[in-house]
Amino acid sequence: MFYQIAIRAVGLLWHFWFHLELHGRENEPKEGGYILASNHCSAIDPMIVCQGIRHSEIHFMAKAELFDIPVLKHVIRWLNAFPVSRGSGDLTPINTSIQVIQDKGILGIFPEGTRSKDGNLLRFKSGLALIAQQTGAPVLPVTITYCDPKKKFRSRVVVNYGKLMTCEELGIHPSENNGAAADLSHARELKEATRKIHSVMEELKQQNL
């Protein structure tokens, strides 16, 4: 309940502050159980991306440091975020991701792993393709473009929702061991899938600008 109220309340704020354009909303699946992959430019990206997704709740990976901030840590947990310690080798986020998808939620990932300072897509990390392989979940590519980097009042913000990409389309063979252990036996396959997703998101960013 908190999630739905918060998304709609923040949506009113963004539509007031920005000239917000949402393209491709018809591509939203009717139910969850997939991965939403978005580029990352700003701390407000998760609340912008959510505006075009209404059939299921998104569970975003968020850097662990955010969960050390008083008040904020409670808010982001209420909004379904869960912590990721970058470079720690901890498999807990992978296990949580798998559970989100199995429960028909939406797993939200910023595959660049950090924010882009100039808005251009950075190199993707391997986690996105790895989770798709572990779960067999399709990927919904999304891009956000802030036409004014300073995000001034009534500046244009464009969100493009692409078409769902299945594991078959990505060349991924889902792991038979759908569990906690990360299957790294198909590194070339995962690398190629990551490249395909990056290419599709590059194309999305060029639309409607």
Identify the notable features of this structure and list them briefly.
seven-stranded mixed sheet; single chain; alpha/beta; 209 residues
Describe the secondary-structure layout.
Elements: H1 2-17, E1 19-23, E2 34-38, H2 45-49, E3 58-63, H3 72-78, E4 82-84, H4 92-102, E5 106-109, H5 127-135, E6 139-146, E7 156-161, H6 167-170, H7 187-205
Helix pairs in contact: 4-5, 5-7
Overall average pLDDT? 90
The helical percent reads 25-40%
- List the uncertain runs: 179-183
Distance between the termini: 35 Å
SS-based class: alpha/beta
Instruction: Strand order, main sheet: write it out.
Output: 1-7-6-2-5-3-4
What is the element string, with H for helices and E for strands? HEEHEHEHEHEEHH
- Please count the helical segments: 7
Largest sheet: 7 strands, mixed
Task: Determine the strand fraction and express it as a percent band.
Answer: 15-25%
Radius of gyration: 16 Å
Query: What gross morphology would you assign?
Result: globular
What's the total count of β strands? 7
